[in-house]
Amino acid sequence: MKRGAQIVVFGALLLACLVSWRGAARALVLGNPSPDFKKGNFGVGAALSDDRETLFVDVGLSDAGTLEVLASNLDVPAGRSGTELGVGYRHKLGASFNLGKFPTHLGILAGYRVASVDTPVGSLDFNLIDIGFGGSITPVQNLNTFAAAIYERVKADTVLPILGKLSKTESNLGFLLGAEYWITPAFVVGGEVHPGLDDDSLAIYGTFKF
Questions:
Q1: Residue 20 pLDDT more than 60?
Q2: Under 8 Å between Cβ of 58 and 68
Q3: Mean pLDDT across the stretch 82-100?
């Protein structure tokens, strides 16, 4: 292969790698850092964003702590569908208090996800860690608005012809902003965005609690 053609091929493969990387960790749901779950509660839900369709299960381990297990289908730009598995934990901190006249709860969250995607020119594997601190405010009955400061770490490994394996690790600091509305005591819908993080698009979700 002539040098000019090699440069073109190299550039195309590198571009595919970068596009796949940038699309690897887009819109996802982290959830309210102080969830309305009690010990023994069980929830089944779904989340939807521009590149993820997720099914998840929430389990109230205690009155303060909620465990989440999830599985997602991914659509990466310039790629094909992939799969993602993850686990998360959210925990209320202390008793509720009033901010002005509005009930307020503080909480922490952590999540870990692993994913694998086949692209037209290779494969992409990544893992994603999110850690956050924040809280929720209830301005009106059944409506919670929530926010958190988030640290996010993404490690991606891309395997491409000629180039072989390319690895990249990226850390970001950003925010979680969202709202959820309890339509009934057992059914909640919500949405959130993450300014400052790679996954900054809108994601929506719904959960049935038992």
A1: no
A2: yes
A3: 93
Which residues are within 8 A (CB) of 95 and not within 5 positions of it... i.e. 6 or more apart? none
Q: Are 112 and 94 in contact (CB under 8 A)?
A: no
d(CA 29, CA 27): 7
Q: 141 CB contacts (<8 Å, ≥6 apart)?
A: none
CA dihedral 156, 160, 165, 167 (to 10 degrees): -30
8 Å CB contact between 63 and 38: yes
> How many C-beta atoms surround the C-beta of residue 177 within 10 A?
15
200 pLDDT higher than 90: no
pLDDT band at 41 (very low <50, low <70, confident <90, very high): very high
Beta bridge partners of 203: 192
Q: Which residue has the tokens 């959960």?
A: 207
Neighbours of 168 (CB within 10 A): 14
Give the Cα separation of 29 and 54 in Å (integer).
9
Q: What is the CATH number of domain 3-209?
A: 2.40.160.20
Measure the CA–CA gap between 164 and 178, rounded to whole angstroms: 40
Rounded-to-integer distance, Cα 127 and Cα 157, Å: 9
Q: Per the structure block, which two tokens stand in for 52?
A: 């993820």
Specify which residues 52 forms β-bridges with.
74
- What's the pLDDT band for 21 if we cut at 50, 70, 90? very low
Sign of CA dihedral 52, 30, 86, 210: negative
